[in-house]
Structure formats: structure tokens, C-alpha cells
Amino acid sequence: MENVRTPSSLARDAYAVGIGRTPILPLQTEDGTIYAKLEWFNRFRSVKDRAAYFMIRGAELEHKLTTNKTLVEASSGNTGIALANIARLLGYSAEIFVPASSSPETLSRLRSSGARIVEIEDEFSRAGRVNIDASIRALNRRISEDAERFLNLDQYSNEANTMGHVYTTGPEISSTLEKFTLVLVGIGTGGTVTGLATHFKKHLPDVKIVAAEPEPGHHIQGLKNLAVSEAPEIIKRNLGKIDRWISVSDDDAVRGVREILNKTGILVGLSSGSNYIAARKILAENRSESIVTVFPDSGEKYREKYESIGIVKESEFDSIIDFTLRVPDSTLPCKFNGS
Q1: SS3 for 182?
Q2: Does the N terminus or the C terminus of the chain have fewer Cβ atoms within 10 A?
Q3: CB 277 within 8 A of CB 210
Q4: Which residues contact 146 (CB under 8 A, 6 or more apart)?
Q5: Residue 55 belongs to what H/E stretch?
Q6: What is the mean pLDDT of residues 12-28?
């Protein structure tokens, strides 16, 4: 892939538009320290900004993307938000196919991006569960109508999804933290875990890579259970780089969100909560571990859910999010500048 030949340039370009160089928050527990990369400090407020930027710029460098093309992508939320907004930033149009069961706040954010949003209803959506497979099928039907008009970046197989983390997230972590033994990431498209695995297997091979996989029938937006959903190609290609798998439940995710809020005053997304609890489970087994994880987004897109299950009161939500969107004094600033 041509953009792999200029990774530093792409990283610096991403940093110049406000994507990357996010801070790390140390979280102390009775069993040890968890270092969390706070990804809502990216420009469009999630970890997916990195992948979307590298995929779009990579398509430009490969001469696959021109202004007469419409970018299309299937997403349960954050990738769609990132891709739609970055496409607009760079002068492209986009269509995003999204499960109708994605959070109301996610759907609202997508609609405000200027992209065409296609909400897909299926048996999973009707059951209140988020599954991307029907959205992918709808996207493929759309492309078949006029293949020359559309460019599917396909985050599930696009190597740039992995490379965005090889050349930004990984170096940011290893440049900022002096010592850690394990990196833990939730399984979604697989870009974050495979990118970090690729980086650390090369530069810090003693660091173990753990994938946190949600249980079948889960309701954690952005994550995939590979027994229920098709395994993304980028995971299949990099499967040998993952040292361990750990299961997380909906209850784990909610418990993690509550615990982080009580501990720090910060409201995180459900995938962040599940990563936190998975890290805590590992620390409970072995206190000598020092764990780095990723908090993919904040809780701002989950207002309706969080209020309905009593995580936050309606009257408190806005002030909590305002606090969450400020960089905490206790964070470690990123030391990597893309070179």
C-alpha cells in the first residue's frame, strides 16, 4: 500500500488537523495501574478518527479516490462519524450505512455530519442489539447499482485501519510510558488491536497483546463477537499477534463505566468500560502486570441509555460531559510528534 511508504508524513498530517496525540490517564486500582489512552480527545471524538484519516488519505495516495467518487462505509457509529466528517473536511461526499439500533446520539451526530445516512433495520436492531452485518449487505447492494460511483473503504479489510495505529497510537504509547507489560484492546473492526500488536511485536516484543471480546448477544456498541459476526479480514491476517483473548459482558461494560465515573468523574463509553473491567480481571490474576488500554470514546453519545439505567441523572449529564471533555490534570501528555 503506497501510504505505508510515508507513515511519518501521514501521522504529522493527521496531527495537524487534530487527530492523534491523545493523553494517557493512569488509573490506580488495589491490584495495580491501568493506563488508559483517552481517544475522545481526537478531533471528532473517538479512536476511529485515526483509521478514517489513514484510510481516506491512503485511498488518495493509491489514486483510488477522486472528487467524483462517493465514499461508502458500514459502521455502528464512531467510524461512520469520523469518516463522514473527515470526508467533508477533505472535500469528499460520503454515505454511511448504520444499524438502526445505534444510540440516538450516534445517529444524531451522523446526521449532522452532512453525509447521507442510511439506517438499516434487521432482527438484531428490533431486539435492541447492534450488529453490522445487515448494514454491510445493504452497502454492497448500493455499490452494485453503480460501481464506478462509489468507493468502499471497508474498514474490516483495509490495511490502513491497522496502519493508522502502527504509526500513531503505538508510537504515542511507547514514547509516553516508560514501562508496561500488556496492551489490552476490545475487538471491533480489529484495527486498533492489530495495529498495536504490529507495533509492539516489532518494537517491544515482550509486551503481551490481549483482545477483549464481548459475549454473544451483547449490546456494546462498536464491539464484535466473532462467533456471531464474521471475523474481519484484518483480524484474520493478524491473528497470530494476539497472545490472549478475554471475554467481557454487558454487565462488565456498565460496571466499568460506573466505576470510572465514581473514581474520576469522567463518563466513558461502554467499550471503554468493558476494556477497564477486562484489565482489572487480568490485574486480579497477576498484580505484577502493568496494563495499557484504550478508551475509544466518552459517554456523550450514550445519554439516553445511561439515564435510563441510572448511571447518571438527567440533570447531571451535561455538567459531567463538560468535565469529561477537559483534559484531566493527572493525564500524561503525548510525547510523540510523528517523526
Answers
A1: strand
A2: C
A3: no
A4: none
A5: helix 48-61
A6: 96
pLDDT for res 185: 97
- Among candidate residues 109, 121, 54, 59, the one with its CA nearest the CA of residue 84: 109
Of 209, 218, 226, 335, the closest CA to residue 270 belongs to: 218
Domains 2-41+158-324 and 50-152 share a fold: yes
Distance CA 13, CA 253 (A): 34
Cell 510523540 belongs to 336
- Grid look-up 508510537 returns 171
Beta strands in the chain (DSSP E): 24-29, 32-38, 70-74, 93-99, 116-120, 150-152, 182-186, 208-214, 244-248, 291-295
Query: Which CATH topology does 2-41+158-324 take?
Result: Rossmann fold (3.40.50)
Q: Which three cell numbers stand for residue 161?
A: 485501519
Span 8-21, mean pLDDT?
Answer: 93
Positive or negative, the CA dihedral 275, 223, 244, 157 is: negative
What is the three-class DSSP state of 109? Answer: helix
Q: Which class is 50-152 in CATH?
A: alpha beta
Q: Is 92 left (phi over 0), alpha (psi -120 to 50) or beta?
A: beta
DSSP three-state, residue 338: coil
Mean pLDDT of the residues in the chain? 93
Query: What's the rounded Cα separation, in Å, for the pair 120 and 135?
Result: 6
Burial of 312 (0-12, 13-18, 19+ CB in 10 A): buried
Question: Taking the domains of the chain in order of start, what are their residue ranges?
Answer: 2-41+158-324, 50-152
The CA-atom distances, in angstroms, between 207 and each of 178, 182, 286 are 12, 5, 15
CA angle 273, 274, 278 (to 5 degrees): 120
Q: What is the pLDDT of residue 191?
A: 95
